[in-house]
Specification:
13 helices; binds flavin-adenine dinucleotide; 31% helix; globular; 26 strands; alpha/beta
Length: 455
């Protein structure tokens, strides 16, 4: 089926309804009511990735961080949402085709398909790790964590086989926030005995959280002071940090590190790197670092008329000429900027080079602990004030008002010591682990220091 152009105005096809695509659609619809927009996404919702780890650790529910695209765009009659995974792109005709065979052609084409995990060819990582990049990933990981608790509760001997060992690969913001959240939850369960009530005799003090990174600092993109603070906070909360260490192999029941350490575990969380989403491979175009498109300063794709690439799907140069990081704020601003440039194209005016307004970076390390570097001058905050800033900024970024209110209620509940004991294990397949294949891990695992040297 080929979708044809019926409206009076120009037609813009946007692939990807994340931060970049959604903001592009909204801005364009508001700026030029004659333009017809088709937004295609493989999901019918926008997912708020910065809070995925809170879904994985049951602090927030999926509905707090995922927003139906049709509802979000309901007030824009010229924006139509199509559910479909784009599998091929013809840059010269601005035509995309979905896996169901539907084709969409526009006068303009906007590529905003985001990222996917990069496993860097690590053996076993694709098969045995839990990436944290989508709502589906977060829900699966939450089920896995619960499954491990249930398994260990039913048979304490499984703790020696790594049932309560959680290994996080990558100490950037995602891995660090995940490690902090884990440590917080285990801590509150231990201290407040909430889980001791639910799981009467599960020895949670034997749970271990490892944070592994090839680099030599936690939160590599932050200042040295922030890195030291984050490492100190995580260590105080019981996280075992392994820096300068790569994961060389992941198995179904263990992970092996470059220093030879073998950690028995059934939950390896991959926060180790990103690359452009797989759609980039269908472009027949020379891609840049991370499989992304090196766009021109005005966000257009070199050599292609009327084609833009945005957000995580593009390498967008900053003021210093180096690519801007893969951040929600870069994606959002590039989406809005692209809309303005399309309006300029339509009005026969010259496009403008993208100017990124750097509001800073922040990361949550746990209750009352966060780091923030505010503005281009990177004014540093840490501790409770950064924690409060983090809550405010992330709530403000959420797409709907109800989500903002609900998130604040959940965070307040958490802050004042409430735990989520009511999380259900709705994916019982996560319980299906062949615990008997792992005799080696069992032999090498000591109760509280189960990361043993191989060989
Ligand atoms: C766990 C995690 C934590 C993060 N934390 C922060 C943070 O604290 N602060 C911050 O600023 N940034 C953070 N980021 C980065 C931020 O989320 C991204 O930079 C941002 O989401 C990029 O927006 P985007 O629109 O380019 O891509 P996305 O938001 O990924 O949107 C891409 C969209 O394209 C769709 N899509 C992909 N392929 C196809 C296809 N073939 N066909 C149709 N649709 C497709 C996807 O379904 C998705 O909806 C985090 C990212 C992750 C993964």
């Amino acid at each position: 089926m080929t979708e044809s152009q019926t409206g009076s105005g120009k037609h813009v096809v946007i692939v990807g309804g994340g931060f970049a695509g959604l903001h592009c659609a909204r801005k364009l619809a508001a700026a030029d009511p004659d333009v017809r927009i088709t937004l295609i996404d493989k999901n019918n919702y926008q997912q708020f990735q910065p809070l995925l780890y809170q879904v994985a650790t049951a602090l927030l529910s999926p509905s707090n961080i995922a927003f139906n695209l049709r509802s979000v765009l309901m007030n824009h009659p010229r924006v139509d949402v199509k559910l479909g995974e784009v599998v091929s792109v013809d840059l010269s005709t601005h035509t995309v085709r979905t896996s169901h065979g539907h084709q969409y052609q526009g006068d303009f084409l906007v590529l905003a398909a985001g990222s996917q995990p990069n496993f860097f060819g690590t053996p076993g990582a694709v098969e045995h790790t839990y990436p944290l990049y989508s709502l589906h990933d977060a829900e699966l990981l939450r089920s896995r964590i619960l499954a491990m608790l249930e398994s260990a509760d039913a048979n304490h001997a499984l703790i020696d086989k790594g049932a309560l060992n959680f290994v996080i690969v990558g100490a950037g913001p995602t891995g660090t926030e995940m490690a902090g959240a884990f440590a917080d939850i285990l801590d509150s369960w231990k201290e407040r005995k909430a889980v001791h009530k639910a799981y009467k005799d599960l020895p949670l003090d034997r749970a271990q959280v490892f944070l592994v990174d090839a680099g030599h600092a936690v939160l590599g993109a932050f200042s040295e002071a922030a890195q030291r603070y984050a490492a100190r906070m995580l260590t105080q909360r019981g996280v075992q940090i392994r820096l300068g260490t790569t994961v060389t192999e992941v198995g179904s029941e263990h992970v092996t590190l470059s220093d030879g350490t073998r950690i028995p575990t059934h939950t390896v969380i991959w926060a180790g790197g990103l690359q452009a989403s797989s759609m980039s491979k269908s472009l027949g175009f020379k891609l840049g670092h991370g499989g992304r498109i090196d766009v021109q300063p005005d966000l257009t794709v070199p050599g292609q008329t009327g084609v833009y690439a945005l957000g995580d799907f593009a390498n967008i140069a900053g003021k210093d000429g180096r690519p801007l990081p893969q951040l929600a704020s870069v994606a959002e601003q590039s989406g809005k900027w692209c809309a303005q440039n399309i309006v300029r194209d339509l009005g026969g005016k010259p496009r403008k080079a993208f100017e990124y307004l750097d509001k800073g970076i922040m990361a949550m390390i746990g209750r009352n602990a966060a780091v923030a570097e505010v503005g281009e001058r990177r004014h540093e905050l840490e501790g409770a004030i950064a924690f409060a800033a983090w809550l405010g900024v992330h709530a403000a970024l959420l797409t709907s008002t109800i989500a903002k209110v609900e998130a604040f209620i959940e965070w307040a509940w958490w802050y004042f010591g409430g735990t989520r004991d009511d999380v259900v294990l709705d994916r019982t397949e996560e319980l299906k682990v062949d615990w008997n294949q792992d005799t080696e891990a069992m032999a090498s695992a000591a109760p509280s220091q189960s990361a043993g040297k191989a060989g």
